[in-house]
Amino acid sequence: MKPLVGKGLAGSPLEGDGDGDSTRFDDLGLEAAADGAAPAGSGTGAGLGVELAAQDPPHQDSHSRVQGVASGPGNKGVDMDPLRRRMTDRSVAAENHPQSPGDGDDSDPDLWTKLRAILPISRHMASMAAVYFLEYTVNTGVASTLGFPRDGVSPHVFYVRSNFAYQIGVFLSRTFGESIPMPWGELWPLPALQLVNLGLFLG
Amino acid sequence: MLASAGAGLGEATSLSMTALYSDWTVVAWSSGTGFAGIAGAGWYLLFHDILKWTPKQTLLLGIALPVLYILASYLMLTRPTVNPIEHPA
After folding, report:
1. A168 and A80 in one domain?
2. Statement to judge: residues A137 and A61 lie in one domain
3. Residue of chain A nearest B79, judged by CA positions
4. Which listed site, A97, A159, B55, B84, has its alpha carbon 20 to 30 Å from A142?
C-alpha cells in the first residue's frame, strides 16, 4: 500500500525548491499533470483545481510556480512571493531526507521527520493560533456576556439572525485566500486585526 | 459524537490531500468551511424561522445531507495529480 498522505507531506511547499532531489515530487506532479493523468475540467469544483494545475506552464522550481499561481485568473496579480520564499527558505527538506532518491522514497516519513517539518512553519502556526484564541475569546468570553437587547426582536430571533450575520463574516474572511496581499508579506497583521476586534467588543 | 469523529478524520485527511492538487484547493477548502457556517445558520433560519418547522423537523431533514459527501467523492473528486500509482482499494 502506498501512503498517499505521506507523499502529500513530502510534496508540500515545505519541501523547498531548486536543489536536487527535494524537487522530485514536484517533478512527478508536473509530469502527471502534463500527461493528462487526471481528467481535467469536468465542470466540477474539483475539476477546476486540476484545470488550474494543468494550465500552469511547466516550471523548474516552486518560485516560478508561485508566480504562475499568483498571476492566475481572479487573483489580481498579487505577489505572495515574500511569504512563500520565506517558507521555502527555511525548509529543512535536505536534512529531512537523508536517504537517497529511489531508496525507500515511497515510505512514510517517520515521526521525527514530521515534527521537524513543523519548525519552518511555526511562525505561521503562531499567527493562526493567535487568531483562533482571540476569536474564541470574543465569542465565548465577551460576546456571550453582552446578552440580548432589551427592546426590539426577541432573544431567539436576535440569536438566529446575529449568528447568521456572524457566519457571513466567517465565510468572507475564509474565502479571501490570497486575493488580497498580506502587508509586508507577513501574517501577524491578521491576529493584530483580531486583537482590535477584541478591543471593540470590550469597549 | 460520530459526526465529530467523522469530521475530524475527514478534515485531517482531506487537508493533507490538498497538497496533491493545485494551490487553489486549500483556498476552496477554506471557503467551504466558511460557507458551511452560512448554510447551517441559514438552514435553521429558513426552515424554523421562515417556514415555521419545529426544531426537530429542521434537524431531522439535515440527516439527508451526508449523502452529498458520497456524491462529491465519487462524482466530482478527481485523481490526485502527483501520484502515478493506483489509488489503494
Report:
1. no
2. no
3. A38
4. B55
**A129 and A90, same structural domain?**
no
C-alpha cell at A127: 499567527
pLDDT higher than threshold 70 for residue A65:
no
Has residue A115 been placed in a domain?
no
Q: Are A79 and A70 in contact (CB under 8 A)?
A: yes
- Tell me: do A29 and A70 sit in the same domain: yes
Q: Which residue of A has its CA nearest to B47?
A: A160
Q: Indicate which of B9, B15, B20 best probes the interface with A, i.e. most A CBs within 10 Å of its own CB.
A: B20
How far is it, in rounded angstroms, from Cα B57 to Cα A61?
Answer: 54
A109 touches chain B (CB under 8 A): no
Q: pLDDT tens across A131-161, in order? A: 899 888 888 888 777 777 777 888 888 888 8
pLDDT recorded at residue A105:
54
How many cross-chain Cβ pairs, A to B, lie less than 8 Å apart? 132
Beta strands in chain A (DSSP E): none
- Is the pTM for the entire model greater than 0.80? no
A33 interfaces chain B, CB cutoff of 8 Å: yes
- Extract the residue ranges of chain B whose pLDDT is less than 50: 84, 86-87, 89
- ipTM over 0.85 threshold: no
Contact B84 A37 (CB under 8 A): yes
| Interatomic CA distance for residues B66 and A137, integer angstroms | 31
Q: Do residues A85 and A63 lie in contact, with contact meaning Cβ atoms separated by under 8 Å?
A: yes
If asked whether residues A9 and A89 sit together in one domain, one would say yes
Residue B9 touches chain A, beta carbons under 8 Å: no
